[in-house]
Specification:
Layout: E1 9-12, H1 18-29, E2 33-38, H2 41-51, E3 58-62, H3 68-77, E4 83-86, H4 101-129, E5 132-137, H5 150-170, E6 175-182, H6 188-201, H7 205-213, H8 224-234, E7 246-249
Parallel strand pairs: 1-2, 1-4, 2-3, 4-5, 5-6, 6-7
Helix pairs in contact: 1-8, 4-5, 6-7
Length: 258
Amino acid sequence: MDLGIKGKKAIVCASSRGLGFGCAEALAKAGVSLTICSRTKEDIEKAADQLSSHNVKITAITCDITTEEGKNKILEASDSPDILINNAGGPPPGIWSDWVREDFLKALNSNMLTPIDLIKKVLPIMIEKKWGRIVNITSQAVKAPVPALGLSNSARTGLTGYVAGTSRQVARFGVTINNLLPGMHDTKRLIDLDKAMSKEKKISFEEARNLRKDTIPIGRYGTIEEFGNTCAFLCSQHSGFIIGQNILLDGGAVNSTI
């Protein structure tokens, strides 16, 4: 399918690897020029080299997107973006008694306030063009909270509420805002979690992976490629009637009717 976005320009946050890279690659394949970022120069330059094979312009920025300096740096590097993919790493796990006010403020800054800031900065550009696509990578925890991820549950649900209202205010200008909710995808983070489970349960790495996969109805982890392709579709010319939605990519792991 031709997504109809060849020649568009996108910002993809935290895109040196994992789900962010998957989104960047799918957009590059569709002919979209990219401004990508990561905190580590070596990682983002490696990603840029890989993405450049798709014959689109790639601008690689080393920054912490959760800081004012980082946000300004990537916005200055991107000339009138048509597409914004918000992404940032999640806060650490724990239980309710572990977290103090500062922990919540840090989580809110990374996973709620930073994407909101970026949305507010690009919306006037998109509204003037009468076209724009914003996709926020959140979590399946928005639909079904994970007890150990209370910080993430709180911050990402706050962003979801903001998007619910804002997306409907800007839809008439040809701008769509939606959220992608990943479940368990085969990324470095999940590999680390499987290694930890292997050590904790004194089983092999493969046994740990199979135990976790057994909790997913489809029986496997998601891939960054299929996640990226879904993101690219939400950024396409074909998605203009999808407004303010929370789309699960979890292999059926969240057991809910709606």
